[in-house]
Amino acid sequence: MTHSAPLIKTPDGTIESISKVLGKHMVSIEEANNEVAVHIHRDALLECMLQLRDACEYQQLMEIAGVDWPDRDPRFEIVYCLLSLTKNHRIRVHLTTNEDHPVPSVTSIWPVAGWLEREVFDMYGVLFSGNADLRRILTDYGFSGHPQRKDFPLSGYVELRYSEEEKRVKYEPVQLAQDFRNFDFLSPWEGADYVLPGDEKTGEGVPQQATPKTTDTATQTGAGKAANKEAVKRSVRKPKATGDKA
What is the CA radius of gyration of the chain? Predict the structure, then answer.
C-alpha cells in the first residue's frame, strides 16, 4: 500500500551541481528532511540567483522569509524559497545580514520579489538595496517598530483611534485595560463568593463559603450565618421571573 503523502525526493546530483555552479560564493550546502538548504554570501546574492535560475533550472521564486536571531551577529537571516518546474523540486537559499547592511534586491530577476521584500522590511526592518518601492505593506504608515522581531512587545508600542474632536486618526501609547480588571477570587478552583444563576437547581444546595483554616463551622458567628442566608436569598430566582412552577 502506497503512502498518502506525496513522495519528496531530491534529484540525483542536485547538491553536486549546485556546489559546482556557485563555487566560492557558497558558504555551505546541506540536506535534512529531504530539503536542500544553500547558504551563500550576501554580496553574491544576485549572481547566485541567476546561476540557480539559468544553470540549475530553479525558475520560480516562491517566497522570501525572515528569521530573527537576537543573540547572533549578524542578527537576521533571509531565506529564499525557489521552485524548479522541470525537476519538480524546491530548495532554500539562506544569507545573513543586519539592519545596517542592505541586502541586494532580486526584483531585476523576479519582479514578484518587490512585494516579498516589502513584507520582510515591514516585519523585520531589513533593507533591500535596489528595491524602488521599499515601504511598509502590512502595517500602517506611522507604525512604530517591526512586529516579527523577537524583542517586539506583544502589545506593541502605540495604538490608534479616530478622534471625533480632531476628525483624524490619532496615535497614543498602548493602554492595557485588562490589567485593571477586578476579580473576586484568586483561582478557578476556589470559586467566586456568590452563586451563579442556575446552580441552585442542582439540589446540592449553595456551596459553602471558603473560610480561613483557623475558623471552624461550629464557631461561625451570627453575622456570618446571616450573610450566608442573604446570599442564598439573592441567588435563588423567583418563579414569576423565570416561569418555573412553584
Answer: 32
- In 3-state terms the chain splits into helix, strand, coil percentages (rounded to 5) of 25, 25, 50
- By the 8 A CB rule, do 82 and 105 touch? no
Query: What confidence tens digit (pLDDT) does each residue in 133-192 have?
Result: 999 999 887 788 899 999 988 878 888 888 999 999 888 887 766 554 555 555 555 555
Distance CA 154, CA 175 (A): 13
Of 235, 225, 237, 233, residue with least CA distance to 194: 235
List residues bridging with 223 in a β-sheet.
none
Which tens digit of pLDDT belongs to each residue from 34-74? Answer: 899 999 999 999 999 999 999 999 999 999 999 999 999 99
pLDDT value, residue 228: 58
pLDDT in tens, 121-133: 999 999 999 999 9
Average pLDDT of the residues in 204-208: 53
Helix (H, G, I), strand (E, B) or coil at 99: coil
Q: 192: burial class by Cβ within 10 Å (0-12, 13-18, 19+)?
A: exposed
Q: By the 8 A CB rule, do 68 and 149 touch?
A: yes
* Three-state DSSP state, 237: coil
- Which residues is 82 bridged to in the sheet? 61, 91
